[in-house]
Amino acid sequence: MSPAATAREAERVERLRAEAAAAGLDAYVATSDESIAYLTGFRPLQLERLFAVVVRADGGGAVVVPRLDEGQIADAPETLARVAYDASSDGIPELLETLAGLSSVGVEEDHIVFARSSALQAHGIRLEPAGELLASLRARKDAAEVEQVRRACAVVEEALRATFAELRPGAVEWEVNASVESRLRERGATDVHPLILFGENAANPHGKPGPRELRPGDVVCADLSACIGGYWGDLTRCATVGPASEWARRAWEVVREAQAAAIAACRPGVPAREVDLAQRRIVEARPELGRCLHGAGHAIGLAVHEPPFLVPRTSTPLAEGMIFTIEPGLYQPESGGIRLEDDVLVAADGPELLSTLPLDLVEIPTT
């Protein structure tokens, strides 16, 4: 890891320490792989073993890992002790030692498993749900993080272009998805989520690729996300096999309008739900073209989906440095789905697209 990167993680630890103290916490324990990567530069393979970063409000802290991963944390911030436990331990005794003398500990409540939380509480540790505290720090990206997301978007763009260029009638959904995954991994992706659906299958935004073959007249909805250098890019484009039907063309026009409205709303201080409302008032006004099944999007960074989420229930104000997917869609069971998705940086002078791929409704040759 470069000295600049190491310094960045050290600064993040100190920011978390200050936030934990301000919240009245004695310490904060991060356990998700994304948060561990954020604070140490090391992204663990989360299986049955305990990984944790402990940041104490009174100074110091520790990285707790299995012995087999001890070599992976050499570049963690110097303010964090290295604590490695052997296979004979589940890591809880070692974690408790790092929390000695403390009572109120903030945790990522969506990630710490019940058995571990119960073990800590049995030793007098009061666990406080504080996932939002660390999530709010992760949400505002620095310049290096923005460039990482931009780089990931470029790789996804290339894969989308190549996919549409190669598609022809007779292609099979799961074979196309497997091919795209291979292409993305060849470009350095460490994790990928290809979701390319044909025809009526695309009416389910989270459908599963199957043996469906591509046919003339089909709509293709291609949603690709890839993790490059620890950060995700997530884009969606659509195509038709042969000339677009009236429904596909009209739905695409409405979704394009909705996306533009939502992107324009991505400004500092705007509540997240207002971004969703900007797209929702457009797509929901055209029920004859399909259903609006999801919010405007989500933040993206070390995780492909992370808070804040652009949905009606989220009042979190947008802030400079946040990056969101903006992905309105319309879905009609008998016809398919149309969705457009781009990654957008919230900046002081207005929203900035991190992707450059045209929004065109691509026409795939029928032969």
Description:
By secondary structure, the chain is α/β, with parallel strands linked by helices. The protein folds into two domains: 3-138, Creatinase/prolidase N-terminal domain (Creatine Amidinohydrolase, Chain A, domain 1), CATH 3.40.350; 143-364, Creatinase/methionine aminopeptidase superfamily (Creatine Amidinohydrolase). Helices cover 33% and strands 23% of the residues. It contains nine helices and 17 strands. The protein has helices at 3-22, 33-40, 92-98, 114-122, 131-139, 143-166, 173-186, 246-264, 272-283, and strands at residues 27-30, 52-56, 61-66, 81-85, 104-107, 126-129, 191-198, 219-228, 231-241, 297-299, 306-310, 323-326, 329-332, 336-339, 342-345, 352-353, 362-364. The strands form five sheets. The chain has a six-stranded mixed sheet with strand order 4-3-2-1-5-6, sandwiched between helices. A four-stranded mixed sheet has the order 7-8-9-17. Helix 6 packs across helix 7 and helix 8 packs antiparallel against helix 9. The protein is elongated. The N and C termini lie far apart (50 Å).
